[in-house]
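Write out a sequence, fold above all:
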Amino acid sequence: MDAYVKSISLKEGLQEISFFHPKHNSLPSELLELLRSEITAAGLNPEIRVIIIKSGGDRTFCAGASFDELISINDQHTGKKFFMGFANVINAIRTCPKLIIGRVQGKAVGGGVGLASALDYCLASKYASVKLSELNVGIGPFVVGPAVERKIGLSAFSQMTINADNFYSALWAKEKGLFAEVFDNVEALDQGVLDMANYLLNTNPDAQSKLKRIFWEGTEHWGELLEERAKISGNLVLSDYTKEVLAKYNT
């Protein structure tokens, strides 16, 4: 199956945005831009009141940014642009006036954890373990860090960041506040997502929008902050250390 980002109306007022990539739902720059665009468009559409974000397949929610692109970075401009992909998606979610429900059916790694953390209400299956793997390749979760830290706190974020080899269970993520609920299987997860969406469709959309602004208070500077973080990561990926590590992955 080819990679895609698509948006469909499930019912009046409810929009589902989904993405897929054959390499464990990794997100290259092109797909990240499409995802940002769909989120922004849904936020501006007065007929849409609630948004669901999900990925295709049943094994991995999102493996993060495209490793193939990461390996190909050879200059600062390209490096910063690469890491701005997730920054732009996080900021699109942050500034979207509609509440966004996340469906996390499987593992989330790196940028995938950042994406899940940025969503307003995230539901997961018991298979949705999480991992911040960036330190393994000589960089760090600089861009997604603010979203992850905001959702689970500095202590849990630093734990995930330092122990970059470890997958943390879905129940651990629920205890830390990343997931609102964890379901035993994908069928129950899908029902839980629809139940929450239907509930929100029957509440005041103006109240939802005002609440979302309150939830995200203190993040108004994230446009500049995440751009600065993208520059840090873009420079680190050019270091001799990181290039040597990436070369091993590319053999």
Summary: The longest strand covers residues 4-11. The longest helix spans residues 76-95. The two ends are 26 Å apart (CA to CA).
